[in-house]
Design goal:
Length: 196
């Protein structure tokens, strides 16, 4: 009986010690973080079976962003006011990483560099800014002096999405000389042309 009491006492002490050292993980964020690559399947480069597949899957660009949800709200012109800067996502600023030199808005962006993406939307067109200011939250710092860190910018027309998008989405579509970065949410989308 004495041994059973000792074993139970030790077990209780271990349980208390373990719970005192348990990790408190933060609550999951409602906005999912996602990545889009160009070319589309380039994240699977190392699974290529031959040189032709490797060449086709050689990474050129990657965008990392958080995907906010519509949740019954009116997005553009309301949640995201026209004429104000937006991070093109949620949480941290959306970020572009280049694996190859690219041109956007007539300006060259260098391979190996990261750029944050900021948007000034209006009803008919969006101006997209590529900034050297990294690792920020939203567009709060950028919007105060965009001219200080803007490396390139381009203005593109707004189009309607084929269907209403509950979550913000970004993907790349191939073009003859590069790719369009397509940004869409709610019933609005834009295509940002890159030449490679």
């Amino acid at each position: 009986m004495k041994n059973l009491f000792a074993v139970l006492s030790i077990a209780c002490l271990m349980a208390v010690a373990f719970s005192a050292n348990a990790q408190n993980f933060p609550k999951a964020d409602a906005s999912i973080m996602d990545m889009a690559y160009f070319p589309d399947r380039s994240a699977f480069f190392y699974f290529a079976k031959n040189d032709e597949e490797k060449k086709a899957r050689t990474k050129k660009m990657r965008v990392t962003y958080s995907r906010p949800a519509k949740k019954g709200r009116t997005i553009f012109g309301d949640l995201i006011p026209y004429g104000e800067m937006w991070r093109a996502g949620a949480n941290e600023s959306t970020e572009l990483l280049l694996f190859a030199d690219a041109k956007v808005g007539g300006k060259k962006l260098k391979a190996g560099e990261r750029y944050t993406i900021h948007v000034k939307p209006t009803k008919d067109e969006w101006t997209i800014y590529f900034s050297s200011e990294l690792d920020g939250w939203g567009s709060y710092s950028f919007q105060n002096a965009p001219e200080k860190t803007t490396v390139a910018s381009v203005t593109v027309p707004v189009a309607k999405t084929p269907e209403t998008l509950e979550l913000l989405g970004i993907y790349f579509e191939p073009t003859d000389n590069g790719a369009n970065m397509v940004i869409g949410w709610e019933d609005t989308m834009v295509k940002v042309p890159f030449s490679l």
